[in-house]
Fold this sequence. Notes:
By secondary structure, the protein is mainly α. It has 11 helices and no strands.
Amino acid sequence: GLVLISFGGALTYVFHRAIWQIYLSSILLGLGIGLINVISSAMIAYYFDGTEKMKVMGYQSIFVSIGGALFSYFSGLLANINWPYSYLCFLMALVVIVLDIYLLPNDRLQAKEEKSKEKLPSRIYLLGFISLLFFISINVFNTNIALLLEQLGYKSDTSGLAAAIYTLIGMVAGLLLNRFVKVAKTNTLTLACLLASFGFLLIATKQIILIFVGSALLGYAFATRNPAGITFSANMVSEDKSALAIAIFNGAGQLGCFLSPYVINYISGLFNKDIVTSFMVAFVFMFLVTIIHLVLNPIRKEDVI
């Protein structure tokens, strides 16, 4: 995964005169990042149990947020020189390869004498489908917050502040994840969706303070739902099927990100093309996802432990 990321970043830095070259590097980056997302989560699911597993998933969420913030900052600095330079940030994966070799345990996972022949429960696929719907909505923030604030007359540093709030609150959510799950239990993902829907509603008010509060709610919702959902997915199945269950959850979410502009823009276009409409559509869409989560909740008590 790390090699694919390094190669994908270097490819765009060297070859970027044709759009197909950028598409090719995007495919490599997507494959690499997808592998790391699934494998790193599967490792946590394998090596940790019970509440400790949820706690470590929360820590992972914190460092993903920190890494995302640093990556955005440094890639932005390099892009100011020349936009292809921003892809050099992906070469940081070479450093991670060295850390991986020297710092990760070198033990092998013990092979099972008999691998489980169980089929994945249908609720894994239901959770994946809800994850797809969640990401169709949540991705509106990432793709439209800068456009909204520009339309309202604010400078780019304001959208940067909104994104920073989203990230920083996500770090707080990672720290509090274990406590949140202890209180919400099987309704953890439902409550996260509800927080996200309120976040979109506040942003749609166009009041800057409420936009910042909405950004915080969305950051908290995402950083709660994603690691909790991964943990629940792994707990739904036997140990040797956990990587596949996590892959379904993550893969459905990434498909939702891909579909997001098509779905949200299409629905928004039925009314008008104003950016605020996209956030209102995201609010309604996320609220419907919350209801679906509440009515068809695929999480059981044994998945939370």
